[in-house]
Amino acid sequence: MPPAPPCPCCSGLRYKECCAPFHRGEAEPPDAEKLMRSRYSAFAMREVAYLWKTLHPDHPDRARSREEYLRDLRAYAQGHQFPKLVVMDWKPPDETGLAQVLFFAKVFEKGKERSFVERSDFRHDGTGWRYLSGVTVQPKALDVPPETLTLATFPG
Q1: In angstroms, rounded to a whole number, what is the distance separating the alpha carbons of residues 22 and 30?
Q2: 1 part of a folded domain
Q3: For the chain, what is the domain count?
């Protein structure tokens, strides 16, 4: 039997031991970083229902119909490859409950690089951590390699 595949979130763990339990609804990510990793994996594994589930109720996409959102996400995920994720920095929740994660996502669409750096905001909704919003920057707009950024040096 071949070995279990590595998790797309680049944690170093196997998918079945890392993000799969979150995608299957068996557990909630314990913190914002793990939620962000599991969302990246969900894009790679085309687990679009999980992406809807993990949107914070205040995220603008929650105003859309679930079916429309899932259809658009399915098309996006099917047309892209997600080969690498690098988490550069994260901040635990502040006094308002806002947690942040800074990451570099390698993404390709039909051989063209669509990678980005994002500072994501997360809030707990009483059940689990949820994606609230994000600010993205294209790597070519940076003066430094994206992997060297921190939350303090992120230009967004």
Answers
A1: 10
A2: no
A3: 1
How far apart are alpha carbons 116 and 156 in whole angstroms?
12
Residue carrying structure tokens 């899932």: 70
User: What pTM does this model have?
Assistant: 0.94
Which residue's structure tokens are 């031991």?
17
Q: What gap in Å lies between CA 99 and CA 121, rounded to an integer?
A: 6
Decide if 88 is inside a domain: yes
Q: Examine residue 7 and state whether it is found in any structural domain, yes or no.
A: no
In a domain, 8, yes or no: no
Domain at 95, CATH number: 3.10.450.50
> Is there a contact between 54 and 124 (Cβ–Cβ < 8 Å)?
no
pLDDT at residue 3 tops 90: no
DSSP collapsed to 3 states, 48-87: HHHHHHCECCCCHHHHCCHHHHHHHHHHHHHCCEEEEEEE
What is the span of the domain harbouring residue 39? 15-148
Query: How many other CB atoms are there within 10 angstroms of residue 145's CB atom?
Result: 9
| pLDDT mean over 81-110 | 96
